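Thread title: Can someone regenerate the structure for this chain?

I was given the following input by a collaborator and told the matching structure tokens would be attached. They weren't. Posting the sequence so someone can regenerate them.
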Amino acid sequence: MGLGAQGIVLTAGAAQALQDLEASSDPTMASVARRVRALRPLLLTDCLHGEVVKKDRIPRELRAQHGLENLYVEDLPSFHRLLYTVVRDRGERFIVIIEIVDHGRYSRWFPGRRR
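Best answer:
Regenerated them for you:
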């Protein structure tokens, strides 16, 4: 059994990305949104489920914007990625979904990274 989390919070950018995916008429985007929703119970049960991004490889832009100490990546359909961090508040663990991005944007943050 993994390390559980108390809840999941989406940043404004991640919430907007999920809303855009759900509103899209493209069935591929709908499958990305479904996968994001399906990850919820999995991440609540095991908040360390995603691939760990080494601390020195966390993009400066994301570190500065969100004050990240850790970063995890989950693969989504159609080369999309979900980026999240685990934070503690009053002794409880929470997942903060930082970004839901397509391959192009992800590649700008992690150039040359092979997945």
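The first strand starts at residue 7 and ends at 10.
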